[in-house]
Amino acid sequence: MDRQTINRSIQNYIREVEQSIQEPIVYRDLGKMPLDTAKAFFLLLPMLNGEDWSSKLNTSAIAVGAVHAAFDVHDKVDIFDASSKEQQLMVLSGDHFSGIHYRLLSSLPDFLLITNMAEMIGRINETKTDLLMEKTDGISGIIESIIRVESGCIGEFHERYGFSKYSKIAKTALGLIWFVKKSMKDPSIERGWTSQIIKNADVDSAISILTSRLQEELAKAGFLTPFLKQEIHRMATPLLEKPI
Amino acid sequence: MEKLKLMSLYADFRKDLSFIEKELEQSIDSSSPVIRQASLLLLRAGGKRIRPIFVILSSQFGEYSMENVAKVAVSLELIHMASLVHDDVIDDSDFRRGFETVKARWNNRIAMYAGDYIFSRALVSIGEIEMPAVHQLLAETMLEICKGEIIQIEYQQQTNQSFRDYLRRIKRKTALLLSSSCELGALVSNATPETVGKLKRFGYFAGMAFQIVDDILDITSTDEQLGKPAGSDLLNGHLTLPTLYIKDDPEFQPFLLRSFDGSLTEEERGLMLTYIRKSGAIEKAQQVSNMYLKKAIAEVESLPDGEAKRALLQIAAFLGKRKF
């Protein structure tokens, strides 16, 4: 597996998600929904590492992408005024993407994943609400909240199909990437739920905690090809400007 | 009074409904205080619980299992609730059924998360039913409802709409979920395909009548009865059946245009409502609703006699004459 193959796999996946969630009026007025390539990479990590990847898994992975698209667009709804046509369509397109995720899982049908994913979607919305209302306490609470919001659905997908060992790495890495971007004031991570509760000191501590956690997990991850380990390093190090 | 009348129609199934009510409350018992409050606010604002009662009644025509029925009924009512929370964001509504909306009490973002949370709980509830047809039907229903709302946004503030456009819109907005409530109730009880079909069509026709009456009440009721300003549909840019009948009336047009551009004064709103009420449009819309109710009743009449059939017929009759 080389970088070009990885990029191609991610782009194919993103294209499949885009095709699945496309709705003509939404597409015309809001355009394509940007999908997070880092999330796609960690979702597909077992496949990139050579694990069996059936069409059932692929459909479920697209369903996870639809959920992420729903989250993203709902996070963009204006906090006080959603009366413009564009904002109204954001509300409805998120609901539409959620419906697509359910239709995809129903088509398999994977009842367990329907339930587990729904439980996680519920928890993520609780977490986003608590972050927004500043009801999350302490650095460990903040780290766990960010990890849940960023990687909760990916974790459910991995757990469902026997990829628990990948789940830990995905959660830690996606959490770390979020905090590193936060430290760099990257606007792409400023979502609806991002509140003043996350202070600069918390961001520094979180980066330090998650960096060592990821280091340990990668050191123990004998199942992962050296190239993928390097890729995971690469995704965090340019942001950190120092090796993990 | 009207609510009591409806409750009396549910009398034979009160035990089942109160079980579902408890399940509803438990299903939204969130660990997040704000989400819990927001969900309870909505649940306690009440509602007619038409979807749960349709599930219960339809399931009586097969092998009734309270466990399965409750999961479906809870799921459908939660989907309905979630859509209301998001609709209030879209319509910028501060009140629903006389209660403050989630977006007004908190803000749009909390309303988005609360709606998404409630929707997720709906899937948790129905996820335990391992019947592919049930999930495929519900998923398609949800997508069609959403599509209907997206199309409604397209039609917002447009006067060049036909009756067919309106009927297609209310089919997706209301009739489909009621139709699916009946169909799912019958499906999880393993009713015969013929019975499932009749109940599905009953729900659809009753749903069409229900929405037309809803649109009539938006004009004929007072602000107090509605718990929101009368004429809200027009103020939000939506043409409904009564207003479609008079949209080209030269005396009505200035009201219509001022409603759509947001410049209608309170006094003009009162004058506009009086004008519509006296125009004969309400009676015409009521006739269309009655036509759908007749079709609904015809579907149920050939089903086996019993308490469920009687209740469905009584509810259909009530839906046509309701005042709330």
Describe this protein with a few key phrases.
heterodimer; A: 244 residues; mainly alpha; Farnesyl Diphosphate Synthase; 11 helices; 75% helix; B: 324 residues; two-stranded antiparallel ribbon; 17 helices; Heptaprenyl diphosphate synthase component II (chain B); Isoprenoid_synthase_dom_sf (chain B); Polyprenyl_synt_CS (chain B)
From N to C, what is the helix and strand string of chain B? HHHHHEEHHHHHHHHHHHH
Morphology call of chain A:
globular
Q: What is the domain tally of chain B?
A: 1
Count the helices of chain A. How many? 11
The CATH topology of chain A = Farnesyl Diphosphate Synthase
Tell how many strands the DSSP assignment of chain B holds: 2
* CATH first level of chain B: Mainly Alpha
Largest sheet of chain B: 2 strands, antiparallel
Note the overall shape of chain B. globular
**Total beta strands of chain A:** 0
CATH homologous superfamily name of chain B? Farnesyl Diphosphate Synthase
Number of helices of chain B: 17
By oligomeric state, this entry counts as heterodimer
Helix content, binned percent of chain A: over 70%
Output the radius of gyration of chain B.
19 Å
Q: What are the SSEs and their pairings?
A:
The complex is a heterodimer of chains A (244) and B (324).
Chain A: H1 3-21, H2 24-30, H3 37-43, H4 45-48, H5 55-75, H6 85-107, H7 111-132, H8 138-160, H9 164-183, H10 200-220, H11 226-240
Helix pairs in contact in A: 1-5, 3-9, 5-6, 7-8, 8-9, 9-10, 9-11
Chain B: H1 2-9, H2 14-27, H3 33-44, H4 50-59, H5 66-91, E1 95-96, E2 99-100, H6 102-105, H7 108-127, H8 132-155, H9 163-188, H10 193-220, H11 223-226, H12 232-235, H13 241-246, H14 253-260, H15 266-278, H16 281-301, H17 307-321
Antiparallel strand pairs in B: 1-2
